[in-house]
Amino acid sequence: MNEAEFPRKPLPPSTQALEGVTVLDFSHVIAGPFATYHLAALGARVIKVENPSGGDAVRNNPRSFTSLNHGKECVSLDLRHSEDVRTAQALLATSDVMVDNMRPGVLARYGLGMEQARAMHPRLIHCSISGYGTAGDWANRGAYDHVIQAASGMAMMSGQAEDGPIKVGFPVIDCATGILAAFAILAALRRRDLTGLGESIDVSMLGAAMQLMYPMVVETLAKGEAPARRGNVGYSGSPAADTLTCADGLLAVGANTPVQLGKLGDVLGIGAQIRALIEGQSTGFVTAARGAEIRQLLANAVRDQKVADLEDRLNKAGVAASKIRNLAESVSDATQSGALSPWMLPGDVPVAVPGLGFKTQSLFGGTSTPAWVKAPE
Predict the structure, then answer these.
(1) Which of 174, 242, 309, 333 does the annotation list as catalytic?
(2) What CATH number does the domain located at 241-324 have?
(3) 22-215 architecture in CATH?
């Protein structure tokens, strides 16, 4: 018997991607809750466990809490009490996934560590989220986003060579760790569908940071040297992958190839001079052989130009360009253009969120967005 001869009966279009999956969520703050928020959005039943002494610290900001925990159920358990431990074990017995971003070893003290949970429930997908992973000399170190930015080398990647460390201005590693954990859990669930086997997943903030810096980490592993800090210049190193000063603002331009640089020159009225400086280059990225001359030509050409007008003309000509926006400008402009389609999380005070970072026609139970219940009490 095989599936080609006896195909499965298709489920109705209203079926959600993770329908029937239950997640027991021992996580707090950002990374863990962001992972389980993705799973909830895809239809999983997520049961968030909080302590009775105030719960998740992010509850102090209701909008942040809602945006990270919408669609979940919340239960209050004090694991210092044996009755609450038994309740947690009962919830675990009916769960498909357990997520733990407590400090390594905390849940193990109550018989709910990874090995203990998997022993009770061999088909369980257990996902541990921590700063540095569950093994090694750094396993018991505490971690926050800015601390991992320092430990991973990320804080020394931005800025110029003469600058001190520059932290990314938002919790980039927390959010990336959550997305990475959700991805790993989905892979483990799919494998369990195929094999019937559970899994133990070890997601670290340090590992997520290395994924975000993937090309640079590859070079560093090969050479043993930190890459040069590039400031606002593009990673390609091409002289026209830069940030230019216009009459009323800054413009980021990505003209990496000879064709792109020629189009940039044409828009600025200096096409002939630009092509003379890159003569002989036809493929790949433009080299920096005459980079200083190219940069000076571009700087002179944009000095009196309006940034919004130049952004529009360059993009129409096929040259990647954007004015430097703050987040408020970006959210407003991207929403108006249709590039960003926020979701509205229903509740007593509805909360707008940027979705999951992708658009779909029918993934969420036959619709383009989840059919949310209200935010957890």
Answers:
(1) 174
(2) 3.30.1540.10
(3) 3-Layer(aba) Sandwich (3.40)
